[in-house]
Amino acid sequence: MRSFGVEEELLLVAPSSGVPVALAESVTRGKDDDGPERELQRQQVETGTDPCTTLDELAGQLRDRRNAAARAARRAGSEVAALATSPRAVTPSTTPADRYLRMAEEYALTAQEQLTCGCHVHVSIESEDEGVGVLDRIRPWLAPLLAMTGNSPFWQDRDSGYDSYRYQVWGRWPSAGPTEAFGTPKLYHDTVRSMVESGALLDEGMIYFDARLSRHYPTVEVRVADVCLMADDAVLLAALVRGLVETAAREWRSGEPPVPVRTELLRLASWRASRSGLAGDLIHPVTQRPAPARDVVYALIEHTAPALVDTGDLQTATELAERLLERGNGAALQRQVYEETGEMSAVVNAAVARTLGA
C-alpha cells in the first residue's frame, strides 16, 4: 500500500475582524514537531502530516496539525483559517528570509501579492521511472480535483467570480500549471534544468507544476488543489490522489500509453474548474467536452475504483464525495455565509470554526 501525506497552508487572521496578520514568526517560534512552519508571506503558515498508510491515520493527523497550528496562533493572538485566499483586504508582508526576499524583488507584484494557500498531496513511488509514468497519466484528472477543492472565491473584499481565484493568482508564476508528458526521468530533469538555467526561475524549488516529482522525498507531489475548508475534503482529496497515482502506475507497468491530451486543453479544463467549481459544467477528462460536475466527479471515482478497493477506501471516498456534492465546496460555503450576513468578517470567522471542525 502506497504511503501518502498532506501539506496544508493556512491563513493567520485577527480574531473577530478576520484581517490577515503578519505573525508567522511568533506563531512558529519554538514550535514542536507537529507545529506549523513559515511560508512566503508572514500572514500564513504551513503544516504537514507524516507519511500515512490509511485514511483514518491521515484524517487524525490532519486534524491534529490543524489544532496544533490553532494553539500556536492563539498564543500569538491570532487564529488559523483554511482559506485559499483572504476575503478581507490585505497587503502581504514577505517573510524576511533570503530566498523569499529575493523572490519578492525578482517577481515584483506577482510575489508581493501572492498570499494564497494550497494543499499538496505526496504519494510514494517505487522509482523515478514510475513517477514520470504517473505524471504523464494523471494529467487529465487534475482539473476535477481543483473544482472539488475550490475554496477561494473572495479577493481583496470582493467576490472574484471564481471558485478558485487562488489558481488564477498562482498562475502568474512563470512555471505554474499543467505540463506536457515527459516520457522519461531524463526528459523531466532536463526540462527542469533548462527552466532553471533560463534564468527565469531562482532555483528548482520554483518548479510549480500542478504535479511534479518531489525534490526531497520519493513521491509524486500533486499541487493543484486549494487548501480545503473542511478537513474531510482534504481526506477525500488525498484518497483520490493516491488512487490516481496507483491507477496510473498500473497503466504504466502494463504498457498502456498516456492519453494524448494537449496542454492547451488541460489549461482550459483548469480554468473551467477554477471558474465554476462544482456549480456548473466541467471539461470531462475523457471526452474533453462539457459535462456536469457531478458526472465528472463520479467519473474520477470510477476511474480510480480498482485502486480504491485495494486500499479499502472506495466506500469512504464515495461517501465523502457525495457529502461534498450535496453541500458544495469551500467556495460555496463561504458565499453562503456572505449571502446570509453581508460581512466578510463573518466569512472568515465561520472559516476559523470550520477549519477546526466546529
From TrEMBL:
Stated family: Belongs to the glutamate--cysteine ligase type 2 family. YbdK subfamily.
InterPro entries attached to this UniProt entry: GCL_type2/YbdK_subfam, GCS2, Gln_synth/guanido_kin_cat_dom, YbdK
EC number: 6.3.2.2
Protein name from the UniProt record: Putative glutamate--cysteine ligase 2
Chemical reaction(s) catalysed: L-cysteine + L-glutamate + ATP = gamma-L-glutamyl-L-cysteine + ADP + phosphate + H(+)
Region (Disordered): 27-53
Any GO molecular function: ligase activity
UniProt keywords, alphabetically: ATP-binding, Ligase, Nucleotide-binding
Organism of this sequence: Actinoallomurus liliacearum
Lineage: Bacteria, Bacillati, Actinomycetota, Actinomycetes, Streptosporangiales
